[in-house]
Amino acid sequence: MSKVLSNLRYSAEHEWIDDASPAKVGISQVAADALGDVVYVDLPQVGATVTAGEACGEVESTKSVSDLYAPVSGTVVEVNQEAVDNPAILNEDPYGAGWLFTVEVSEEGPLLSAQDYASANGGDVE
What we know:
By secondary structure, the chain is an alpha+beta fold. The chain is 19% helix and 39% strand. The glycine cleavage system is composed of four proteins: P, T, L and H.
């Protein structure tokens, strides 16, 4: 069963966000497991504005291409170059080294608690 971290909040589209400022964004292990081997990541540019619930990039695996949705609105502060250079890190460590970008949050989208996300997606809260 996929791991869901209790200290994060989640979007219905399987992105996670922490409570730091700027906030770190990534994809959940549920999403990484469903995608299979991630081979390419397209992330928003530093300085770009993202809007909660709207596509802001792509994650491509050996199975499919999936849109990456912003869990919040705000300005992108940093992009994880390691995830771009080595997309497999999203499968290996989606909550750690596999984070995608940080954002200065101006408005939150509809976010789920870890418990609600795990209940809806069959994950184990840790």
